[in-house]
Specification:
The chain is mainly α. Helix content is 72%, strand content 0%. The chain is globular.
């Protein structure tokens, strides 16, 4: 990762705002090397007061993490929870199309928009390039290739694990499987689901592998970013897991199968983002997972 990829992180602000000041400590130099993989900029003659201290750096990191966790909670739980309180039930109880429309409005659009608004108006340091800060950088075909490999690994491991653990929690309402839809209605339904997949992938990737993983990796280290993103992505699905588990009277084994598959996908998505050096890598894998589900639903 180059120094320019430190985006709007608190670490970059330290070095960007005090270029004319000598290094305050070896610890800050080490933080720069650990997060950027390059040597820190050369010290210049002192021409202004030193404003970046170890304490301010730590405070910026803490503020960054608190804001990330806040918008993650609001986008994935608070808005949908308020809707449930006002309407007397979780939106997943609605019909297929109404439920998807509700999820797009209540969960997916906040996951897409809140990271952008946070970086633009609520970040500890100015962010000049939103795409870079969210990892949406085109780096040739490498991210796509990494995403394809991650998807293949996921499918192989998921197949063997599902044979060992048995069926997971179904993610639909009883009796909603129905038959195939033909003609114009079928085409419109297909386009609707494709639109849902595109928005969902963009939204979840922007929030999780984009904002959360990119920024926490830069400030706390790669593996903290990978693991935190995996956990928060898994927890984001917990309300739906509880809802469908109740509907289907899920057994502990079904719970186990569901979460093994969920967190397998979550860790591979995070690793794809890391090795692909771009959010396009995890978005490729995520899109393929959704497309597979879509094809299976229409066959």
């Amino acid at each position: 990762m180059s120094a320019s990829n430190i985006g709007g992180s608190p670490l970059r602000r330290c070095f960007a705002t005090d270029r004319a000041a000598p290094w305050e400590s070896a610890a800050l130099s080490k933080k720069w090397r650990d997060n950027s993989g390059t040597s820190p900029p050369s010290a210049l003659p002192l021409s202004q007061p030193v404003g970046c201290t170890e304490r301010s750096f730590i405070k910026d990191k803490e503020n960054m993490l608190k804001r990330i966790l806040l918008i993650w909670f609001v986008a994935n739980f608070a808005i949908a929870g308020l809707f449930a309180l006002l309407t007397g039930g979780w939106y997943l109880r609605l019909s297929t199309f109404a439920g998807i429309a509700a999820e797009l409005g209540l969960v997916m659009l906040p996951n897409l928009l809140f990271p952008i608004l946070l970086l633009r108006y609520g970040w500890p340091a100015p962010v000049s390039d939103l795409r870079q800060a969210l990892g949406w950088q085109w780096k040739g075909w490498r991210p796509i290739f990494i995403g394809l490999i991650a998807f293949a690994i996921y499918r192989i491991l998921s197949f063997f694990l599902s044979n060992i653990l048995g069926p997971s929690i179904p993610y639909n309402l009883p009796g909603s499987e129905g038959g195939s839809i033909g003609g114009l209605a079928g085409i419109l339904a297909l386009l609707f689901f494709i639109g849902f997949v595109v928005i969902t992938v963009m939204s979840e990737e922007t929030m999780f592998r984009g904002l959360i993983q990119t920024q926490t990796s830069q400030s706390y280290g790669v593996w903290v970013g990978v693991l935190l993103t995996m956990v928060l992505f898994g927890l984001r699905h917990l309300p739906a897991d509880i809802f469908y588990a109740h509907i289907w009277n899920a057994t502990p084994r079904m719970w186990l199968a569901r979460h093994v598959d969920l967190y397998l996908g979550a860790i591979l998505l995070s690793l794809a983002r890391y090795f692909g050096r771009s959010t396009y890598a995890s978005a490729t894998m995520h899109s393929l997972i959704f497309m597979l589900i879509l094809v299976q639903g229409f066959i």
